Every structure is written in structure tokens, then in C-alpha cells.
């Protein structure tokens, strides 16, 4: 009887039922579309962030460089000791060194201290370095302004640099290689710790015609390429990965790291883990993924703001309006059926049963609205995916990454401050470190709006809730009817 | 069956109080047919609603088979209505979206009858009022007389002790009126019901055992030709 009565009643006022269902559908469709767009934006942010820090990494720990931390870099051109004499003109030289100028260093023991903190699932250290090679011929004293590099007009110097990441092989679940996909060869195994083997980023490999089995030089040492990897789109990968212990040796940074990648046991722990790390490693910069997300700017951030603010409130407003409309129309329908309900009460129907009937009808409309809303939501999400313009995301400046862009532009501004008459040179005044640290990394991200199971469940819950709210108002009105008054109503 | 003692019902109309029932004392025996006549607005329908537990008196006792309907909780009165009291209305009050059979079945829902039992009993009730071939018809597909027959079947399907009819022929033409009254009389005799019928129609009222006149909220018995039912 319940379903027969429900079906017949909905058929009788089909136009009104369709109107209510469409109102709910619109609200629910909008909620799904906005949720999908929001998920898409989050995914895009995740893509950018994971590419920067690696999938699974929740926190990175770095340290700002100390004011005089020049690192172990130095050129000695020409023969002999550093006796303050300028090398003879025409002297050729070649140097290839690993630098860590943008980041301060942490002792390796910090990694194990961090790993022991409550809420930490895994922690791995790394050395984010730049391999800088310079070669050329010492010019005559009259031919230059005493400077190396572009600004000095020393066209007979060649510089080359690429980024190197000394990766901790013991911890694979966090760190820069965790989100990498091996496209050729293999990645590191624990037995590679002391070997001169390298994994190369696919973009760098194709630029430099490197393949699995090729050899390349890192800090003057020959390395065999054992694998080519690609990082997710929007990433900012190192160009070459070598075992951490080899990087430490070659950079003369034994037992030192400059980045620690940390995975928290759960997302809820990130805040507390971040605090405890700050206590264990005083002076360190502890960056969480949400800190980094807040530094994402560009149209991706605008889209995020649009989805989270305007979209969310628009969906809420439409949904509230739909609920209100459904409630008012259901109450109006109950008003029109006062005699009918009075008759049912006269027949001995309990108020509860009549309220249940009214709520059943409203919830059925809600479910239909929900189903149409889910379809609308899928259509809306597909439309967003199709017509959304490519979004750009800019991340930076951060202290946790050394950008390849920064390294590639090195030397363009006369940064090599040669010491006239001196036997040594240094990278000029920390220019590299500033360049690397202040670089803003911009990536293009295509926005997709995936409809998740969670969003569909949310829609169903909202639909039932919409019906429930409308039915409650209608039912409340029906329950309050006095049978005598209801039966005396003139229609 | 019924024993009403000084039953009063007052309504507030603006600042003044209107007495719909101004102290009604009445005893109705089991199996009796009582017709109530009177001018419009003098309390006939109010009395019927109080007898059916659809309304409560302002004061007085409405004893129905040893229970005071005026003092029972709403849920208890609902149970009494569901099991023991059948209603017939002037405007039939059928659920427009349900078929004739489903309308009759609706009276069995509060009794907890299963679908098969409901179908069987409702079909039998409709056959007893001559509508065995109209089970699937919607009210809108039936004439006024047929709709009232469906309403009678709905009132009788649960085999109530008392049948309360409020102007059951008020919306019908003369021929149909006679048809319906004859049907009610036959059912009254056949089932040994207590029939309380409110009507403006004197020829209809005259067929009852007793006729009461409601005037200014007071009831006076005008005719008493008690004859045994059946």
C-alpha cells in the first residue's frame, strides 16, 4: 500500500514532483561539479607538489645556508700553490665540482633523529647539489676586466652545470625518486650504495643523448647510467640522481645532508610531526606540503580559490534554495491534501503512518533529484575537464629545491668574480645560491575534474537529506492536523 | 453501545464562545439505527465527530463500550476508530489516486492485515455493494452513487461495530439516494450494525428506528419505532 500510494501520488502531481526534483538535481549537480573541480585542482596541486618533493613526502627539512658557507668549492688554476700569483696567460684548466650553495647542511644523524619522532612513517636524507664544470684558457691580463663569465667578456671559458641529487637508497618510499617512473633500465637498489651509478631524468637524458649503459661525469668521476626516469608533469626534478654516499664523498660532505624528506604516519599527524622536528633539529626550516601549497600561485591558485570560495558557496546557495523550494512545495501539497489525510485518520491511520507517507514521497523525489543531479554533476565535471584552459602554477621561492632553471642560467650575469692577480676563484658572492633559492618555478597543469565515489555518496546523502527536510516540514504539518478540522475543510 | 452524559462542545469564535453541543445526554443501543436531523450549524456533525472520536468534547462523558472516548489518549482513540468505527461522508472522501479496491484496502492498513488478506476482503466488500466489476476503477471513473458504494464498502470491510454516516445521500440524486439508503438498510440488517446517520432528508430519516432533532446544540428524540434488526 505504501509504495502504491506513493507512486500514484507522485504520478498525480508529476509536474510539481519534476519541478522539485529538478531543483534538487541542479543543486546536487552543482555540488558534484564543484567538488570534482575542487578535486581536480587539488590533484593538480598534488601533481605539482609531489613532483617537487616526491609522492609520499609530507614534510621536508632543510637549513638556510650560513653566511660564509661557501662549501668546498674552489678553483686552482695553473700550477703550484695558492701563492697569490696569477696563472700565466694561455694556461688551460678544467674543473668539475659538486656544490651545495642554496642550502645549509645537516648532520646525517638528524635523519635518524627525525625518523624516531612519533608520527613519522619514514625519513630519508638527500644532498641537493649542482655539478658545475668550468674549463677554458687563462686570458692575458689586458684582455679582460678580471672577471669570468658573461659580464667579463671571457668567451674562452666554458661552463656547464646540472643538478644532482644524492639519494638515500635505504628509504625508497619518500624522497625525490619516490614519484619517478622508470622508463628505461632500473632504479637504485641497496647494493648500489658505493657504486658509481646514476639514474638520469628523461628530459636531461634526451638533451644530452644519454641512455642506459652510457657513462657521464659527475664531479670529475665517471658514472654509469643504470636507468632513465621521468617525473610527473609539472615537476622540478633533479637531472641526475646518484647514491647519497657517493654524493657525500664527491662533494666532500661526509655524513652531511641538506634535505630530509619525511612521510607522516597519517595526514592528521603532519602538524605535530612538524613541531617535533623543529625541536629535534633547531634552526631547520620545516616545510609541510600545505606550506608549499600556500606558495602555489598563478591561475591554478586562482582556480583553487574559485572552486573553494565562489563555487562552494554558489553550490551551497543553490542547494539551500532547492531544499527551501522542496519544503515549501511539499507543505503546499500537504495543504491541498488535508481532507485526504483527515479521511485516513478517520480510517484509523496513525499520524506516524501519514507522516511516513509524506516523507516517503518527498524522499522519493529527492532520490530522483539525486540521480538526475549525479548525471548533471558528471556532465558538469566533463564540461569543466573539456573547456578548462590550461592552468599555470608557480611555486617559489622555496629553500627546499634547487631548480634546474636556476642552474642553467648560471653565469649569465658575470657572477664569476675572478680575483685579479689571484690564483683562485669562487662563485661570486653567493649569486648562485640566491639565483637558485629565489627562482620561481612555473609549470602548466591541465585541470581535470574527476567525480569521486565520495562525491556521488555525498550527492545521494544530500538528495535523501533534501527529501527528508522537505518531508519533515510536510509531515509536521500533516501530523498536526486534527481529523475533525481536516474533514470539515471545504475544497 | 454509546452513553453520552452532559456532553458539551464549545468553540471560540473571535471573542465569543459558540456552544455547538450544549449538554447532550444520549444512550444508543447495540444494533440501533438512529437518524439525526436538524438545521445546518446546530451541532449534528459535531455530535457525529465526537461519537467517532474525531473530536473531543469540551466536557462530558462519551462512553463507548465501557471506554470514555473523551478521556482516552489520541493513539487509543485512533485504535478504536481503526477497529470499531466506520465512517461514510457526504463527499465520499475517496483517495483520488487509488483504485476502488485500494481505497477499500486503506481501511485495513491500520489493522495490520497483509496484502493478500486485504485484497480478498476488499474484493468481497466491493462485491457486497455491487461493485465486483469495478475493482480497478479510479474514483474519477465512477459515478457519485458508485463512489458512495465504494465508501460504504470501505467503512464495512473492517466489520465495525458502528457505522457513522454524515449526509451520505446529500450529494446524490433521488434515485441514487434511495438505492444507497436501501443498501445501508440491508447492510444494517445483515451485519447487525449500529447505524448513526445524520441527514437533512426526512424520507431518509423516517426509515430509521429513532430520529433525533438537533437544535441549538441540544438533542431531542422525535420518533422511536424501535424494531429489531434482522
Description:
- Chain A has 491 residues and is of the alpha+beta class.
- Chain A has two domains: 2-43 and 301-390 and 449-487, no CATH class; 64-283 and 404-430, no CATH class.
- Chain A has 14 helices and 19 strands.
- In chain A, the strands form four sheets. In chain A, strands 1, 3, 5, 6, 7, 8, 9, 10, 11, 13 and 14 form an eleven-stranded mixed β-sheet that branches. Chain A has a three-stranded antiparallel β-sheet with strand order 2-18-17, with no helix packed on it. A three-stranded antiparallel β-sheet of chain A has the order 15-16-19.
- In chain A, strand 9 (215-218) and strand 10 (221-230) form a beta hairpin.
- Chain A is elongated and about 115 Å long.
- The model of chain A is unreliable at 70-75, 144-154 and 397-439 (pLDDT under 50).
- Chain B is globular and about 50 Å long.
- The mean pLDDT of chain B is 91.
- In chain B, the strands form two sheets. Chain B has a six-stranded mixed β-sheet.
- The relative contact order of chain B is 0.20.
- Chain B is 33% helix and 28% strand.
- The longest helix of chain B is centred in the C-terminal third of the chain and has 18 residues, at 174-191.
- Chain B is of the alpha/beta class and 230 residues long.
- Chain B has one domain: Rossmann fold (3-Layer(aba) Sandwich), CATH 3.40.50.
- In chain B, helix 4 crosses helix 5 (144-156).
- Chain B has helices spanning 44-51, 74-84, 100-106, 115-128, 144-156, 174-191, 202-205; strands at 2-13, 16-28, 33-37, 59-64, 67-68, 85-88, 162-166, 194-198, 210-215, 218-224.
- In chain B, a hairpin with a 2-residue loop joins strand 1 (2-13) and strand 2.
- Classes of the chains: A alpha+beta (491), B alpha/beta (230).
- Chain A binds chain B through residues 1, 4-5, 8-9, 11-12, 339-340, 342-351, 353, 482-484, 487-488, and chain B through 45, 49, 52, 54-55, 74-75, 78-79, 81-83, 87, 89, 91, 93, 95-98, 102, 105-107, 109-111, 115, 118, 154.
Amino acid at each position: 500500500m505504501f509504495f502504491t500510494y506513493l507512486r500514484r501520488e507522485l504520478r498525480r502531481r508529476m509536474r510539481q514532483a519534476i519541478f522539485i526534483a529538478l531543483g534538487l538535481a541542479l543543486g546536487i549537480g552543482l555540488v558534484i561539479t564543484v567538488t570534482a573541480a575542487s578535486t581536480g585542482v587539488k590533484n593538480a596541486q598534488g601533481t605539482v607538489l609531489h613532483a617537487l618533493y616526491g609522492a609520499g613526502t609530507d614534510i621536508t627539512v632543510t637549513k638556510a645556508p650560513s653566511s660564509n658557507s661557501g662549501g668546498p668549492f674552489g678553483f686552482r688554476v695553473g700550477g703550484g700553490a695558492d701563492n697569490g700569483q696569477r696563472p700565466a696567460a694561455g694556461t688551460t684548466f678544467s674543473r668539475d665540482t659538486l656544490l651545495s650553495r642554496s642550502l645549509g647542511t645537516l648532520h646525517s644523524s638528524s635523519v635518524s633523529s627525525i625518523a624516531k619522532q612519533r608520527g613519522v612513517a619514514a625519513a630519508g636524507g638527500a644532498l641537493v647539489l649542482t655539478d658545475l664544470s668550468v674549463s677554458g684558457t687563462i686570458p692575458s691580463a689586458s684582455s679582460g676586466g678580471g672577471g669570468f663569465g658573461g659580464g667579463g667578456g671571457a668567451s674562452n671559458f666554458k661552463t656547464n652545470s646540472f643538478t644532482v641529487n644524492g639519494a638515500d637508497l635505504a628509504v625508497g618510499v619518500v624522497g625525490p625518486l619516490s614519484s619517478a617512473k622508470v622508463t628505461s633500465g632500473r632504479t637504485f637498489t641497496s647494493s648500489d650504495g658505493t657504486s658509481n651509478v646514476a639514474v638520469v631524468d628523461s628530459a636531461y637524458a634526451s638533451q644530452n643523448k644519454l641512455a642506459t649503459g652510457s657513462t657521464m661525469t659527475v664531479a670529475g668521476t665517471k658514472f654509469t647510467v643504470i636507468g632513465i626516469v621521468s617525473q610527473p608533469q609539472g615537476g622540478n626534478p633533479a637531472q641526475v640522481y646518484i647514491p647519497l654516499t657517493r654524493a657525500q664523498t664527491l662533494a666532500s660532505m661526509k655524513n652531511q645532508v641538506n634535505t630530509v624528506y619525511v612521510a607522516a604516519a597519517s595526514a592528521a599527524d603532519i602538524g605535530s610531526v612538524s613541531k617535533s622536528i623543529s625541536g629535534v633539529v633547531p634552526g631547520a626550516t620545516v616545510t609541510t606540503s600545505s606550506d608549499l601549497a600556500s606558495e602555489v600561485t598563478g591561475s591554478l591558485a586562482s582556480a583553487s580559490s574559485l572552486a573553494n570560495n565562489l563555487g562552494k558557496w554558489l553550490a551551497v546557495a543553490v542547494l539551500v534554495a532547492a531544499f527551501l523550494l522542496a519544503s515549501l512545495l511539499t507543505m503546499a501539497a500537504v495543504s491541498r491534501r488535508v481532507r485526504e489525510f483527515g479521511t485516513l485518520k478517520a480510517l484509523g491511520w496513525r499520524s506516524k503512518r501519514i507522516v511516513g507517507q509524506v516523507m516517503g514521497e518527498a524522499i522519493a523525489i529527492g532520490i530522483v533529484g539525486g540521480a538526475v543531479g549525479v548525471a548533471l554533476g558528471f556532465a558538469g565535471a566533463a564540461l569543466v575537464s573539456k573547456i578548462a584552459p590550461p592552468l599555470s602554477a608557480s611555486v617559489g621561492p622555496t629553500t627546499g629545491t634547487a631548480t634546474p632553471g636556476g642552474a642553467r642560467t648560471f653565469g649569465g650575469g658575470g657572477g664569476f668574480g675572478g680575483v685579479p692577480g689571484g690564483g683562485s676563484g669562487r662563485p661570486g658572492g653567493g649569486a648562485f645560491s640566491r639565483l637558485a633559492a629565489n627562482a620561481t618555478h612555473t609549470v602548466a597543469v591541465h585541470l581535470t575534474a574527476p567525480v569521486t565515489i565520495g562525491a556521488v555518496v555525498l550527492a545521494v546523502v544530500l538528495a535523501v537529506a533534501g527529501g527528508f527536510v522537505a518531508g519533515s516540514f510536510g509531515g509536521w504539518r500533516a501530523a498536526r492536523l486534527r481529523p475533525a478540522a481536516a474533514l470539515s475543510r471545504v475544497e | 453501545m454509546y452513553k453520552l452524559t452532559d456532553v458539551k462542545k464549545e468553540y471560540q469564535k473571535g471573542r465569543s464562545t459558540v456552544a455547538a453541543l450544549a449538554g447532550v445526554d444520549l444512550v444508543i443501543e447495540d444494533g440501533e439505527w438512529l437518524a439525526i436531523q436538524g438545521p445546518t450549524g446546530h451541532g449534528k456533525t459535531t455530535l457525529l465527530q465526537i461519537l467517532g472520536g474525531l473530536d473531543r468534547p469540551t466536557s462530558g462523558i462519551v462512553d463507548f463500550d465501557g471506554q470514555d472516548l473523551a478521556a482516552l489518549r489520541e493513539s487509543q482513540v485512533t485504535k478504536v476508530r481503526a477497529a470499531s468505527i466506520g465512517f461514510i461522508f457526504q463527499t465520499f472522501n475517496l483517495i483520488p489516486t487509488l483504485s476502488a479496491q485500494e481505497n477499500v484496502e486503506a481501511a485495513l492498513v491500520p489493522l495490520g492485515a497483509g496484502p493478500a488478506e486485504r485484497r480478498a476482503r476488499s474484493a468481497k466488500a466491493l462485491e457486497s455493494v455491487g461493485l465486483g466489476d469495478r475493482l480497478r476503477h479510479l474514483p474519477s471513473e465512477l459515478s457519485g452513487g458508485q463512489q458512495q458504494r465504494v465508501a460504504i464498502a470501505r467503512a464495512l470491510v473492517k466489520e465495525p461495530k458502528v457505522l457513522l454516516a454524515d449526509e451520505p445521500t446529500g450529494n446524490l440524486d433521488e434515485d441514487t439516494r434511495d438505492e444507497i439508503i436501501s443498501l445501508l438498510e440491508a447492510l444494517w440488517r445483515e451485519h447487525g450494525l449500529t447505524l448513526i446517520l445524520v441527514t437533512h432528508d426526512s424520507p431518509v430519516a423516517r426509515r430509521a428506528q429513532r430520529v433525533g432533532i438537533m437544535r441549538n446544540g441540544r438533542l431531542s428524540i422525535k420518533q422511536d419505532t424501535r424494531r429489531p434488526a434482522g
